[in-house]
């Protein structure tokens, strides 16, 4: 996800006073109207909008603003947008989004020791990277062994903890920090020994005993949940990365991560037309390839659900509801890909997976918080293809898993 702090300011043009220091003068009739109308508005009632409307009507009535004003505002907004985007989504010289690397890696320190009973997971529901960890945690039966605190995005884009009333009681919802009682995720990161001043991202695996960040790289966490906690897992026999498929899983991840998982962000966060065109071409070329592959294979690696499927799923479930609209991934909706949408429904209907997919929270986290991409903060109506009733429709993909059917097991 992201942790940039974005703020906006509106400058309200009040008429000049009669002080000699003001050289700018309004026409007499306009000055009189402004002075007579302004006192009728209460600044205590957020009357900025009314004041702006009054001034613009007096200046140019029902006509469009003059071209000079339009060009000035456009130039100012463009410069402001570039500034905000440079903080929200750092890019290379071509304008292509460059995702920052995770600072805390689980397997980078071979001497790292911790107790499984001290593990605590921090996530945010809008984030596809955090969603991976929630799915593997649920499928492996680690809900009781690895407690979770669910943050929600604040108005400045940072993660915060607060009680959140959500009408969908069957889904996970944001709440308070159960491990440290902090108000923000940034405060949790700062609790670690030596403090912290970097990006406070989710997912994050926390050591409650040592007060230390163990990992904030999603793939490290899902690999660890899959095979590193079987002694406390409720479903230890499930292996989402079996030895015989590790090579294929790695090949699929090498295709899906840059072109799909990160590809949608490279479209949405592109800061040049060239960067956007390149990202969009790679994204939809890969989706078409996946559509063809899934015509003859139930999952990416054949009959078996793997970590590669989990990583693809968390992007696909957000595609029509967010990326198609907000990130300009507009060439085709996911629901137009017959096999991909059936594959999405297949995984969604696996027990426990749907509970991790709070579509309302996903939309809230993108449309309300990504100010540079949606300045009005208007949350659109959820596409019908993303509603639970549609995602729960029969997918008939189990017919691809018949033992008599030859399925694809390798990446060409």
TrEMBL record:
PROSITE patterns: GST_CTER
Ranges where the GST C-terminal domain occurs: 242-376
GO MF entry, a single one: glutathione transferase activity
SUPFAM superfamilies on file: GST C-terminal domain-like (SSF47616), Thioredoxin-like (SSF52833)
GO CC terms, sorted: cytoplasm
PANTHER family xrefs: GLUTATHIONYL-HYDROQUINONE REDUCTASE (PTHR32419), OS02G0814800 PROTEIN (PTHR32419:SF31)
Protein name: GST C-terminal domain-containing protein
Source organism per UniProt: Solanum lycopersicum
Lineage of the species this protein comes from: Eukaryota, Viridiplantae, Streptophyta, Embryophyta, Tracheophyta
Protein encoded by which gene: LOC101264336
């Amino acid at each position: 996800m992201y942790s940039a702090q974005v703020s906006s300011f509106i400058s309200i043009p009040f008429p000049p006073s009669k002080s000699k220091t003001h050289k700018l003068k309004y026409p007499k009739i306009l000055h009189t109207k402004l002075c007579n109308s302004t006192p009728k508005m209460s600044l205590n009632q957020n009357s900025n909008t009314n004041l702006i409307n009054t001034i613009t009507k007096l200046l140019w009535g029902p006509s469009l603003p003059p071209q000079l004003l339009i060009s000035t505002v456009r130039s100012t907004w463009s410069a402001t947008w570039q500034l905000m985007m440079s903080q929200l989504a750092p890019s290379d010289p071509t304008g292509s989004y460059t995702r920052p690397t995770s600072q805390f890696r689980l397997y980078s320190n071979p001497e790292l020791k911790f107790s499984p009973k001290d593990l605590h997971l921090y996530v945010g529901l809008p984030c596809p990277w955090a969603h991976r960890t929630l799915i593997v945690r649920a499928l492996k039966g680690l809900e009781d062994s690895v407690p979770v605190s669910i943050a929600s995005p604040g108005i400045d884009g940072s993660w915060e903890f607060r009680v959140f009333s959500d009408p969908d009681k069957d889904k996970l919802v944001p709440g308070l920090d159960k491990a440290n009682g902090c108000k923000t995720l940034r405060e949790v990161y700062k609790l670690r020994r030596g403090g912290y001043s970097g990006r406070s991202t989710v997912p994050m695996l926390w050591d409650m005993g040592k007060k230390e960040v163990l990992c904030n790289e999603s793939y490290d966490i899902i690999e660890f949940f899959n095979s590193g906690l079987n002694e406390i897992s409720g479903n230890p026999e499930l292996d989402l990365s079996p030895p015989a498929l590790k090579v294929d899983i790695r090949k699929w991840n090498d295709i899906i991560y840059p072109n799909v998982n990160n590809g949608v962000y490279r479209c949405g966060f592109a800061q040049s037309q060239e960067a956007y065109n390149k990202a969009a071409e790679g994204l939809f070329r890969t989706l078409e390839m996946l559509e063809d592959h899934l015509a003859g294979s139930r999952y990416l690696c054949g009959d078996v659900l793997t970590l590669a499927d989990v990583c693809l799923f968390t992007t696909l479930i957000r595609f029509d509801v967010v990326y198609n609209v907000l990130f300009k991934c507009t060439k085709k909706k996911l629901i137009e890909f017959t096999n991909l949408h059936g594959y999405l429904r297949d995984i969604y209907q696996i027990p426990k997976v749907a509970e991790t997919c709070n579509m309302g929270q996903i939309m809230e986290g993108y449309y309300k918080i990504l100010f540079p991409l949606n300045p009005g903060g208007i949350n659109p109506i959820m596409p019908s293809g993303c509603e639970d009733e549609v995602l729960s429709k029969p997918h008939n993909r189990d017919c691809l898993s018949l033992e008599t059917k030859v399925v694809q097991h390798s990446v060409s």
